[in-house]
Every structure is written in structure tokens, then in C-alpha cells.
Amino acid sequence: MDEKAQLRRFNLRCLLVAGMLLGGLPFIEAPLALHGIVAAYPTLFAAIFNGLSVLPASAYAFWRRRIACIWLSINAAVQIVCWAGLGHTGRQFDPVGIAGICGSIALALCLDFMEFRRWPAALRD
Question: Which has fewest Cβ within 10 Å: 21, 26, 76, 88?
Fold first, then answer.
């Protein structure tokens, strides 16, 4: 394997580990932060879906990147739709929540780019 492929594999692994760290926060934080929210069911669904998607999909991407790309892209689409619908509910935009949404979207876009460009797999030699 040439040096460029090894560097791409290293970058992919770093992205997936960062995705696992990014996914760990809502996975742990969601039950605490969402306690008592019943007014905005789409927001609640999107937060739970994001919390339960990013960590497992990032870990699964080490073996099956294409399926994880689809999974994270669907998660990003749900987050975007929820964020766009948030203005209709009259709630204020939360900068921390938007940063978490942007992190999930950026992870999905980067992984989709790597899959589209056919970067080497994370674990295969």
C-alpha cells in the first residue's frame, strides 16, 4: 500500500474516532437533557435518533462504511428537517444544540465524501 493510501486510512480512522466521541455525548446526555420535553415531539424524536445513531454508526463504519454513510446521512436529514421546523414552533435557537447538529451533519458529509472518493477501508490491510 502506498503512502497516500495509508494517510487516507489514518484520516478515516481519526474521523471515525472523532465521530464516536461526538456520538458519545448525546448518547449519554440525551436522557438527562430531554427529561420533561413533551411540547415538541419532532425535536424529541430527532434528538433521540441523533443520540442513538452517531456512536453506533461511527463504530460500524470501521467495517461497513457504505451502510454507515447511509445511516448518518439519514440522521443528518432528520436533524436538518427538525432544525428547519424549529422556527415554526416558536422556540429559540440553542447554540449548543445547533453545534451538535452541525457536528453530526459534518460527520455525515465527510464520510460521504470519503465513500464517494473510494478511500481505503479503515480496517482492511
Answer: 88
Is the Cβ–Cβ distance between 55 and 23 less than 8 Å?
yes
Report pTM: 0.79
Residue 117 φ/ψ, nearest 5 degrees: -85, 0
- pLDDT tens-digit profile, the chain (125 residues): 689 889 999 999 999 999 888 888 776 766 666 655 555 677 777 877 888 888 899 999 899 889 999 999 999 998 888 877 766 555 566 676 677 788 888 999 999 998 898 888 888 75
Give the orientation angle of helix 95-116 with respect to helix 3-33, to 10 degrees: 150
83 domain residue, yes or no = yes
Per the structure, the complete domain to which residue 70 belongs is given by 3-31+40-116
Q: Pull the grid cell for residue 89.
A: 414552533
